[in-house]
């Protein structure tokens, strides 16, 4: 039997097939690239109908694979911190707003005022911080800037709910996993925090929120149009969406407090499945599922920084990557804040921007690349220090990191801990497959361990140099934003 996984990330839509042991089936990856629409003012949106067309094209393609003859169930992971409005007919009536859209940063002072200047109770109740990545600030901005658009919204949903509404022809719940990224889920009750929804946004939004269910509240019976288009999926159960970061933790083998997952894709994150009495300062508390709390921090920088430096600044000079391994840490004399899309963890300063300090006539192309990659590692090391209990292993994956061994070494030195570099190329989709097995068969999430490509150990001399660089980075951040 086969498991079909849909993985809608920040830069691509993909479908993949896994066998019953959560092993990727050869030749089964179908992919379509996409980009958010962005501008210098903080815009970061997508067109939900266009994303749906990409996903559907991937499903059409993967169903031609021989292993698709025996699809048992369908699972879904999506980038999270996304929402859109549906009109009374169920059609999208707003853009798809994303975590990377920072235009609502001007709403944060008024939201803080509604909390009487103390956001900690809100943080502890919802697991989220006041930030334009979340629904309260973004919905307030829409109401203030485009009330006619807001008035058309009959129901708010996420991209997974929109896909399923289109395919099944009925309103869909939002999964606990996705809802926990919204800034309005009551973590303890595992339902919407109605008091904060009304206090921060108002009755209008509270009346438009969808129902909430766990990921395994499966949906069946495709609408006639899609049952005819995908007859092999007509009676297959479709699992609700998991947040892509949550799924990546499971796919990395980080299913309990003994392992921390480091994922570097378009963006970056460090997360651990762990119960905590309090959400740590600077970090969030989300959910993989009802019984799997997730603590960590995400940054808006990762592979996007590498791509920007390589393609826009250095014009795709691939020879530079090969030279990185021979570079001494922090030998470039630069101090970089790699905040190209604002800051999330650990400081949550949405107005923060990228900065390069120390450029001189001696600065070369390799210096710029190395300084930016080290800068991302140093920023992530701040999150690691907030998470670390000195016993957990770090499981590292994501396409951006796996393509650069030099960058993985920077992470080990910046964290001052061994990095277990995963050989699994599809950790998010693998995590979805493992979660489906858990629900369908009762299989343990750690029954099938991920393959490890290498273990990279920190070097004391390199650790010392990067700690010095981190102090300079922190000093630059304080000078600009404190």
Kindly describe this structure.
With 482 residues, the protein is an alpha+beta fold. β4 and β5 (44-46) form a beta hairpin. The longest helix has 23 residues, at 365-387. The chain starts with a strand and ends with a helix. The model has no long low-confidence stretch (mean pLDDT 95).
The average pLDDT is 95
Biggest β-sheet strands, sense, barrel: 7 strands, mixed
What's the total count of β strands? 23
Query: Which bin fits the share of residues in helices?
Result: 25-40%
Percent of sequence in beta strands:
15-25%
Rg over CA atoms:
22 Å
Question: How many helix segments?
Answer: 18
Classify the secondary structure makeup into a structural class: alpha+beta
What low-confidence regions span 5 or more consecutive residues with pLDDT below 50?
A: none
- Termini separation: 56 Å
Spatial strand sequence of the major β-sheet = 17-18-16-15-21-22-23
The outline comes out as globular
């Amino acid at each position: 039997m086969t498991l079909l996984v849909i993985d809608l990330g920040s830069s691509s839509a993909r479908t993949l097939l896994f066998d019953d042991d959560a092993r990727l089936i050869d030749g089964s990856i179908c992919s379509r690239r996409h980009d958010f629409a962005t501008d210098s003012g903080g815009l970061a949106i997508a067109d939900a109908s266009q994303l749906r067309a990409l996903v559907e094209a991937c499903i059409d393609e993967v169903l031609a694979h021989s292993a698709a003859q025996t699809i048992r169930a369908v699972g879904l992971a999506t980038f999270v911190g996304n929402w859109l409005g549906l009109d009374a007919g169920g059609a999208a009536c707003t853009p798809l707003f994303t975590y990377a859209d920072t235009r609502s940063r001007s709403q944060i002072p008024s939201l803080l005022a509604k909390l009487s200047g103390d956001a900690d109770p809100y943080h502890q109740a919802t697991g989220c911080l006041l930030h334009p990545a979340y629904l309260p600030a973004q919905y307030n901005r829409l109401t203030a800037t485009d009330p006619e658009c807001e008035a058309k919204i009959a129901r708010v949903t996420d991209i997974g709910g929109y896909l399923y509404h289109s395919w099944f022809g009925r309103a869909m719940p939002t999964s606990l996993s996705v809802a926990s990224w919204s800034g309005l889920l009551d973590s303890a009750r595992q339902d919407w925090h109605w008091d904060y929804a009304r206090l921060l946004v108002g009755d209008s939004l509270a009346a438009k929120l969808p129902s909430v269910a766990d990921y395994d509240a499966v949906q069946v019976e495709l609408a006639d149009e899609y049952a005819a288009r995908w007859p092999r999926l007509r009676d297959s159960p479709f699992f609700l969406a998991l947040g892509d970061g949550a799924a990546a933790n499971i796919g990395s083998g980080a299913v309990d407090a003994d392992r921390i997952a480091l994922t570097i894709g378009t963006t970056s994150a460090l997360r651990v499945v762990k119960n905590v009495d309090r959400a740590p300062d600077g970090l969030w508390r989300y959910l993989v599922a009802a019984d799997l709390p997730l603590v960590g921090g995400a940054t808006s920088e990762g592979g996007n920084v590498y791509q920007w430096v390589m393609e826009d600044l250095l014009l795709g000079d691939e020879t530079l990557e090969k030279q990185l391994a021979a570079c001494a840490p922090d030998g470039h004399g630069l101090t970089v804040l790699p905040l190209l899309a604002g800051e999330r963890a650990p400081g949550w300063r949405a107005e923060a921007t990228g900065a390069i300090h120390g450029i001189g006539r001696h600065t070369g192309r390799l210096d710029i690349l190395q300084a930016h990659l080290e800068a991302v590692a140093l920023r992530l090391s701040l999150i690691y220090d907030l998470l670390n209990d000195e016993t957990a292993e770090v499981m590292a994956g994501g396409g951006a990191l796996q393509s650069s061994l030099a960058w993985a070494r920077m992470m080990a030195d910046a964290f001052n801990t061994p990095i277990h570099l995963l050989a699994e190329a599809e950790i998010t989709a693998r995590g979805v497959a493992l979660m489906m097995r858990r629900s369908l068969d009762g299989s343990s999430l750690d029954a099938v361990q991920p393959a490890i490509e290498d273990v990279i150990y920190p070097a004391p001399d390199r650790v010392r140099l990067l700690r010095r660089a981190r102090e300079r980075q922190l000093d630059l951040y304080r000078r600009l934003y404190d």
